[in-house]
Protein backbone atom coordinates (compact mmCIF):
# COMPACT_ATOMS: atom_id res chain seq x y z
CA UNK A 1 0.00 0.00 0.00
CA UNK A 2 2.90 2.36 0.69
CA UNK A 3 3.97 2.54 -2.93
CA UNK A 4 0.56 3.44 -4.31
CA UNK A 5 -0.22 6.14 -1.74
CA UNK A 6 0.65 9.16 -3.96
CA UNK A 7 -1.41 7.58 -6.73
CA UNK A 8 -4.33 7.15 -4.34
CA UNK A 9 -4.24 10.87 -3.60
CA UNK A 10 -4.05 11.71 -7.32
CA UNK A 11 -7.05 9.44 -8.02
CA UNK A 12 -8.95 11.03 -5.14
CA UNK A 13 -8.31 14.52 -6.53
CA UNK A 14 -9.43 13.35 -9.98
CA UNK A 15 -12.66 11.89 -8.57
CA UNK A 16 -13.24 15.12 -6.64
CA UNK A 17 -12.73 17.25 -9.75
CA UNK A 18 -15.17 15.08 -11.73
CA UNK A 19 -17.66 15.42 -8.83
CA UNK A 20 -17.68 11.73 -8.01
CA UNK A 21 -17.67 12.69 -4.35
CA UNK A 22 -18.52 9.29 -2.86
CA UNK A 23 -15.53 7.65 -4.55
CA UNK A 24 -13.31 10.65 -3.81
CA UNK A 25 -14.18 10.48 -0.12
CA UNK A 26 -13.36 6.76 -0.04
CA UNK A 27 -9.98 7.43 -1.67
CA UNK A 28 -9.16 10.34 0.64
CA UNK A 29 -10.02 8.15 3.62
CA UNK A 30 -7.79 5.38 2.25
CA UNK A 31 -4.94 7.86 1.78
CA UNK A 32 -5.36 9.31 5.29
CA UNK A 33 -5.50 5.83 6.85
CA UNK A 34 -2.39 4.78 4.95
CA UNK A 35 -0.55 7.86 6.16
CA UNK A 36 -1.48 7.06 9.73
CA UNK A 37 -0.40 3.44 9.34
CA UNK A 38 2.86 3.88 7.45
CA UNK A 39 3.81 7.46 8.38
CA UNK A 40 5.16 7.98 4.88
CA UNK A 41 3.23 11.10 3.83
CA UNK A 42 4.38 14.67 3.66
CA UNK A 43 2.37 17.17 5.67
CA UNK A 44 1.10 19.12 2.69
CA UNK A 45 -0.33 16.02 0.98
CA UNK A 46 -2.02 14.83 4.15
CA UNK A 47 -3.43 18.29 4.86
CA UNK A 48 -4.73 18.47 1.30
CA UNK A 49 -6.48 15.12 1.72
CA UNK A 50 -8.11 16.21 4.99
CA UNK A 51 -9.16 19.52 3.46
CA UNK A 52 -10.65 17.94 0.34
CA UNK A 53 -12.50 15.31 2.34
CA UNK A 54 -13.78 18.12 4.54
CA UNK A 55 -15.11 19.91 1.46
CA UNK A 56 -17.08 16.82 0.50
CA UNK A 57 -18.59 16.68 3.98
CA UNK A 58 -19.34 20.40 3.78
CA UNK A 59 -21.24 19.85 0.54
CA UNK A 60 -23.29 17.19 2.37
CA UNK A 61 -23.97 19.80 5.07
CA UNK A 62 -22.21 17.57 7.59
CA UNK A 63 -20.64 20.53 9.34
CA UNK A 64 -19.31 18.71 12.42
CA UNK A 65 -17.33 16.16 10.44
CA UNK A 66 -16.20 18.77 7.92
CA UNK A 67 -14.93 20.96 10.75
CA UNK A 68 -13.02 17.99 12.17
CA UNK A 69 -11.33 17.41 8.82
CA UNK A 70 -10.49 21.09 8.35
CA UNK A 71 -9.06 21.19 11.87
CA UNK A 72 -7.00 18.05 11.15
CA UNK A 73 -5.68 19.72 8.00
CA UNK A 74 -4.69 22.78 10.04
CA UNK A 75 -3.01 20.63 12.69
CA UNK A 76 -1.13 18.75 9.96
CA UNK A 77 0.07 21.85 8.09
CA UNK A 78 -0.56 25.14 9.89
CA UNK A 79 0.79 27.09 6.88
CA UNK A 80 -2.04 25.89 4.59
CA UNK A 81 -4.55 28.73 4.38
CA UNK A 82 -7.43 26.95 2.63
CA UNK A 83 -8.67 24.87 5.61
CA UNK A 84 -8.69 28.01 7.77
CA UNK A 85 -10.95 29.63 5.19
CA UNK A 86 -13.16 26.53 4.87
CA UNK A 87 -13.53 26.14 8.63
CA UNK A 88 -14.29 29.86 8.83
CA UNK A 89 -17.15 29.43 6.36
CA UNK A 90 -18.75 26.81 8.56
CA UNK A 91 -18.29 28.88 11.69
CA UNK A 92 -19.82 31.86 9.88
CA UNK A 93 -22.82 29.81 8.73
CA UNK A 94 -23.36 28.59 12.29
CA UNK A 95 -23.20 32.16 13.63
CA UNK A 96 -19.88 31.76 15.46
CA UNK A 97 -18.66 35.10 14.16
CA UNK A 98 -15.62 35.55 16.41
CA UNK A 99 -14.30 32.10 15.51
CA UNK A 100 -15.02 32.73 11.82
CA UNK A 101 -13.20 36.05 11.92
CA UNK A 102 -10.21 34.39 13.55
CA UNK A 103 -10.06 31.73 10.82
CA UNK A 104 -10.44 34.25 8.00
CA UNK A 105 -7.77 36.47 9.54
CA UNK A 106 -5.37 33.53 9.76
CA UNK A 107 -6.05 32.62 6.13
CA UNK A 108 -5.26 36.20 5.12
CA UNK A 109 -2.15 36.26 7.28
CA UNK A 110 -0.89 33.16 5.49
CA UNK A 111 -1.91 34.47 2.05
CA UNK A 112 -2.39 38.25 1.94
CA UNK A 113 -3.82 37.98 -1.61
CA UNK A 114 -6.64 35.59 -0.58
CA UNK A 115 -9.55 37.69 -1.83
CA UNK A 116 -12.33 35.27 -0.86
CA UNK A 117 -11.07 35.29 2.73
CA UNK A 118 -11.02 39.10 2.73
CA UNK A 119 -14.59 39.27 1.44
CA UNK A 120 -15.75 36.67 3.97
CA UNK A 121 -14.03 38.49 6.83
CA UNK A 122 -15.73 41.76 5.90
CA UNK A 123 -19.13 40.05 5.55
CA UNK A 124 -18.67 38.39 8.93
CA UNK A 125 -17.89 41.75 10.54
CA UNK A 126 -20.96 43.33 8.94
CA UNK A 127 -23.28 40.49 9.94
CA UNK A 128 -21.92 40.45 13.47
CA UNK A 129 -22.54 44.20 13.76
CA UNK A 130 -26.09 43.82 12.42
CA UNK A 131 -26.73 41.07 14.94
CA UNK A 132 -25.54 43.33 17.75
CA UNK A 133 -27.66 46.23 16.48
CA UNK A 134 -30.76 44.01 16.39
CA UNK A 135 -30.10 42.96 19.98
CA UNK A 136 -29.46 39.24 19.35
Keywords:
136 residues; mainly alpha
The coarse overall form would be elongated
Overall SS class: mainly alpha
Continuous helix count: 7
Fraction of helical residues:
over 70%
**First-last Cα distance:** 53 Å
Protein model, in words:
- This protein is an all-alpha fold and 136 residues long.
- It is built from seven helices and no strands.
- Helix 3 (43-59) runs antiparallel to helix 4 (63-76) and helix 5 (81-93) runs antiparallel to helix 6.
- It is elongated, with a radius of gyration of 16 Å.
List the helices and strands and how they pair.
Layout: H1 5-17, H2 21-38, H3 43-59, H4 63-76, H5 81-93, H6 97-110, H7 115-134
Helix pairs in contact: 1-2, 1-3, 2-3, 3-4, 3-5, 4-5, 5-6, 5-7, 6-7
Short characterization:
By secondary structure, the protein is mostly helical.
